[in-house]
Amino acid sequence: MKRVGVYICHCGTNIAGKVDVAAIAEQIGEESVEVVVSRHYKYMCSEPGQKMIRDDIAQLGLDHVVEASCSPKMHEPTFRNAVSMAGMNQYMFEMVNIREHCSWVSENSELATDKAKALVKGAIARVVHHQPLQGSRCGVNRSAMVVGGGIAGITAALKIATAGYKVYLVEKDEIIGGRMAQFDKTFPTLDCAGCTLTPKTSEAGRHPNIEILTKTEVLDVTGFVGNFSVRVLQKPRFVRTDKCTGCGDCQKVCPVNIGSVFEVGLATRHPISRPFPQAIPNTYSIVRSGMPPCQAACPAGVNAQGYMTLAAQGKFEAALALVRQRMPFASICGRICNRLCESSCKRGQVDAPLAICHTKRFLGDFEAANNPDDIAALKPRREEQIAVIGAGPGGLSAAYYLALEGYPVTIFEKLPISGGMLAVGIPEYRLPKEVVEREIGRLKRLGVQIRTGVEVGRDITLNKLRKEGYRAFFLGIGAHRGFLLGIEGEKEFQPVLDGVTFLRDLGLGNRLAPADRVVVIGGGNVAIDAARSALRLGCSKVAIAYRRTRSQMPAHEEEIHHAEEEGVQIHYLTIPKRIVGVNGRVTGLECLRARLGEPDASGRQRPVPIEGSEFVIEVDAVIPAIGQEVDLGGLCAEDDFEITRRGTIVVDKDTFQTRVADVFAGGDAVLGPATFVEAVAQGRLASLSIHNYLQHGFLREVKAAEKPVEKVLSQEELARALPIVRQRMALLSAQTRTGSFDEVELGLSAEQVEQEGKRCLSCGLCCQCGECAANCGPQAIDLTEKDRIRPLDVGAIVVATGIDIFDPAKFPEYGYGRYPDVITNLQFERLCNASGPTGGQLVRPSDGKTPQSVVFIQCVGSRDPARGAPYCSKVCCMISAKQLSIFKHFNHAGQAYVFYIDNRTGGKGYEEFLRRAIEEEGAQYIRGRVAKVFQEGGSLKVRGENSLAGGPVEIEADMVVLATGLTARSDYLSVARALNLSTDKHGFFIELHPKLGPVETSLAGVYLAGAAQGPKDIPESVAQGGAAAAEALALFSVGQVEVEPTVATVIEARCTGCRTCESLCAYQAISFNEEEKHATVNQAMCQGCGTCAAACPVAAIAVSHYTPDQIFAQIEGILG
Amino acid sequence: MNPFEPRIITFLCNWCSYVAADAAGVSRLSQKTNTRAVRVFCSGMVDPNYVIKAFAQGADGVLVAGCHPGDCHYIAGNIKALRRSFLLRKLLEELGVDEKRFRLEWIAASEPHKYAKVVNEMSEQIRALGPFSPGCVRD
Prior knowledge:
The complex is a heterodimer.
Chain A (H helix, E strand, L loop, with lengths): L3 E6 L11 H11 L3 E7 L5 H14 L3 E6 L2 H14 L7 E5 L1 H5 L5 H19 L8 E4 L3 E5 L3 H12 L3 E5 L14 E2 L4 E2 H14 L3 E4 L2 E9 L2 E8 L14 H5 L4 E2 L8 E2 L2 E2 L11 E2 L6 H5 L6 H9 L3 H9 L5 H7 L3 H5 L11 H15 L14 E5 L3 H12 L4 E5 L7 H4 L8 H13 L3 E4 L9 H6 L2 E6 L5 E2 L16 H9 L9 E5 L3 H12 L4 E5 L11 H10 L2 E3 L2 E9 L2 E15 L5 E5 L5 E4 L2 E4 L3 E2 L33 E3 L2 H4 L4 H20 L19 H5 L14 H4 L12 H9 L12 H5 L12 E7 L1 E4 L3 E3 L16 E3 H8 L20 E8 L15 H15 L4 E6 L9 H10 L4 E4 L2 E7 L2 E7 L6 E6 L1 E6 L1 E3 L3 H8 L26 E3 L9 H21 L1 E4 L4 E3 L9 H5 L5 E4 ...
Parallel strand pairs in A: 1-2, 1-3, 3-4, 6-7, 6-33, 7-10, 17-18, 17-20, 18-19, 20-31, 22-23, 22-29, 23-24, 33-44, 35-42, 36-37, 36-42, 37-38
Antiparallel strand pairs in A: 5-45, 8-9, 11-12, 12-32, 13-14, 15-16, 21-30, 25-26, 26-27, 26-28, 34-43, 39-40, 40-41, 46-49, 47-48
Helix pairs in contact in A: 2-3, 5-35, 6-7, 6-32, 10-11, 10-14, 10-26, 11-14, 12-14, 14-26, 15-23, 19-20, 20-21, 28-29, 29-30
Chain B lengths: L7 E6 L3 H10 L8 E6 L7 H9 L4 E6 L10 H18 L7 E5 L5 H18 L10
Parallel strand pairs in B: 1-2, 1-3, 3-4
């Protein structure tokens, strides 16, 4: 028979005031056969209480103990320790929570007593199933991670490091120092914040045991006290701290200006900068928010923000060089691109997107006009010959980048002219021949050979070329075979020719109109091109038949518009039925009207023919332009390429290698009919693979692309929008242009391009134009740096992530954001700071004048449950007293006013400081709320109430300072998730105990410091930083931690080997023993969550101390 | 005769809901006395058998409370509890347990008010349903 002792605590009156503890003790003793002794006592946690238990164990031979009192989170360790001292295994003890869960929250005494008794009975029933367990001991990794480089974090880091242990100081921003670095003076001594902080930051910066990781955030933490595995995300600084000398040459040439977060929006900064001269690390860094949407949308990844920014400065050559990093043919692309960049340009959310494409065209044309013989610098010549098949966009692009790399490249082109679809697909009024020839001419000047009129697969084979010494091939053969309609009369009557053939003949010089009246079938760019070309060939009537509506047309909107302007008649919702004719000649196209039905696979509504709606478009020729396909010719005769059902060549999606190792392919041949820019992109990427294939024998490694910036326009971006309208390009008039194939769009002027560039919102912040890198003497700048995930193994973690300030825009009556002279107290700090935006001159942001009258408004966001937070931010009263003193020292004749609710000056020397502000500085403290700040006659007026005098007051103010309260960091949730911390409803992290565990958390080994736990001033933050360090150091000093034995165990005989548990384990602690066919738990990795146990269909796995028999017994006991 | 006082077994996860229940106590948030807590490490540890056992022993209701999705101390144990709950509800229905007698809630450590609200709501709801008679549920 088990021998159980039961002890019920009164907790003074906390429990006994509600629960009849004596009755429970008595009844339990009578009802439960296992209970040997049942007592109640005033304070079980007191020494006499604990001694009572110890004595009973010794004298009565107890083998189990139940104790009912407060939450086990409070005193479980106390009582476990007590029973251990008496020689009992601590796991033979069970604690019942009858205070937090019962007496404190129940109204009815009788019911509370019933509940408490049931809980105690559950514990008695459970405890008899307890088994003695032995925890193991585990070593401690004696290094720490401190998250947050403010004064609290720096203090903790320095103390741990000075004690001789390694510290990783993880900081989200580019420098350490936190909020204190932004302050000017500190209360109550008016010490210079910088002068007291910078010795600490410098010490942290040079301490051999501290490694500072800037621009770094914690991704996740696993493991347990003493043995944490952390993953941090290090964002690139783009400037190497070991090379940068801090000279500042880089920022002189940076073309981008953005609002400074450090200066709280009072000044602008360049994306490359250093917040203040004594910053640690004392090197420059670059802020980049991600890949701008224009670049992210571009298939070729052209850095549009970069070249637009350079173009704004008139640096056209540098801008063009940037274009050519990804797009060799600026003049062509600038004329025909489908401009995904512009559709995603965030300026489009303001007014109209930047004219990115037209700017690119200008850059190419500008060089042609001013510096036509310029060629790119080539790398040293290499030996390996490369053949490119097809002189279209893909082939030309591959040839260009391979030539730059130093390879001798020969292009083989089937047609008598080069350019592919650029020459024989796109009509001249959109893309003049001389532009194509000029861009190809640049390629030839790089040494690229082009052999036209040679069809590979017929005139020469790949094997023959291999024998001639070609080492790699790029197939860019395009998709040049047009589809016909497959309708009645197509073969019977003439002329019916597909759009691709029609445009190719035209491109090759055949300028004869196919007939007098022409109908083109289709809605793509080829259809529009064919129709507009037909007009220019002298056709008297040109129509387009398209089966859907205008909004569904795949052709560019501008092209459709131009076609309409020129007189092309477009029949929408028109389905061709048959071609009619007489004597073998076309006389018309019979069509059916259609209506829109259900959406098809592409999501567009399917056109449904309307029966009996036949009508005839009278024409003399029909040009179907409904698609095209790849014409492989004889290419497959020797090489075994994989071909899709659509007839395109299959390649690896990252390397563009075909199934034949030395052959790569791209463009329409791979994509089917696609765009120019996609073909160029694939040509370039294939060239990288070809280079790797030839030089390293392996192909391009796939690198994660930079994360794009948010698509939604932000307030900061909107603030950067200069009031300039999108520049319009001059056009040939619709009347004159159909008479010839002259180019319709006439280009932008240099002035227009500069204006256009200035419209850029700099979404990516740094535009990666490369100006800084080119001007950096020590070559410290590397714009290709990428995000890096770094693992850190530490034994203790200190969380000191600090605070944000309330957003004063939530209080529109104070006029923040509307009146420049209404500022926050943090902005006031920057205004007086010698390294701030005014060089330490306390002047008004609006006109730079020294203010005579300054009004401080207290409790902006604090003590305001309706619009802010219910809590007091604790520091704002003292901040305002300090700031008005600073103001008075600047301007002795000035007058300060403070509207306050209560003055809270708890702290050493604080009340005395406030008295000085009132008595010596003569500040007028007005008790009452401010109703409104408004402008009248050129000055600000503050209207409020004086609740002591009773009545309204109105004060004229040169400057209004809002004493904004403190809030949790806006990203507190992601920090909490990464570190498994609990937060209160305001987002502050929860400490283990509000009185006795202020720096510990419910997670052993994770400690809190500073205002991340709640509003705090500097001395408190420093004290907490020290306390958190002491906790970590105590852990390191002991060097070992007890690992709870509450982990999962497998009852091997019962395990059926179904492996259900294996995949459920979040810690990969369960593996399968293949030989013996049962699951095995790695107890060092098991965290004891019990998910496996709950899922095991045969109850073959259980967590010690939480076994099914124990839980079942507890349920029975409670309900018994 | 005394009015009907339901008995509700609550399985509270050690890291969120148990802490919330403690915090509700510290804040003296008044609660009905009908709940009886069983502390578990994780809501994912709650074997559906425990819930069935509780009903079989005459519980009038069962509450399983864990951390919010994404906040689980053990990464995703709560999600596993959620996954299990769908089948468990069907099973309970088959066993003749009204679905309102079983509840799965996410209660964070910072949500003592939510905890008290759930306790009071559920107590009243089950009081209205009346006592549960195990019927075919026998272990």
